[in-house]
User: What shape does this take?
Amino acid sequence: MSATRLLILGVLLIKQPIHGYDVRRELEAWSADKWANIAYGSIYSALNKMAEEGLVEVVSTNHQDSKPARTEYTITESGRQEFERLLREYWWNWKPTIDPFQVAITFMNRLPRDELLNSLHYRAELLRVALKGFEYMAPGKVSHPDSPRHIVENINLTAAHVETELRWIEQAIEKVERGDLP
Assistant: This one.
C-alpha cells in the first residue's frame, strides 16, 4: 500500500482539492498501472484510510441527484511529511521486486520439456508485444500536455526490465534446447 499511498499523496500535492475519481484519472494519465502495480479501485479505500490517519482531510462532499457522493480531499501537514518520508525511503533504499515468475523458475524441472519450451517461447512473445507497446506509449506521454516528462522515465525503466527478462528467456530457451536446463 505504501507505493499507492505515495502516488495518491503526490497527486494531492500537485492538484488539490481533488476528488478520488480525479486522482484515478491523473494516475491513469501517467499509466501508473503499468509501472506501479496500482489497483485503481484501491484509491478510494486508501483515501478513506489516510483520512482516518489524518494524512488527508475531507473538504467537501457533493451530492447530486442520483449520482454517488463525490468527496473532495486535501493533503494535511502530516500527509506532506508522510509523502516526503516515503519518497526518500524509495529513493535511498533498494527493495527487491517480488516476481512470481522467479518463484516458478525454481520449479521449472517439474514441467515436461515440451511444455517448458512452449511456455518460454510464449512468454518471450508476450514480452516482445509489451516492448512494442512501450515504443508507442512513451512518445504519447511526452506529447500529452498534462503528463510530467519524468513519467516517461517510469515507462523506460519498465521497458528495460522487460528487455532484460526477454534476454534471459532467450538464453534459457537455448539452454533447455541443448539439455543444459533444467
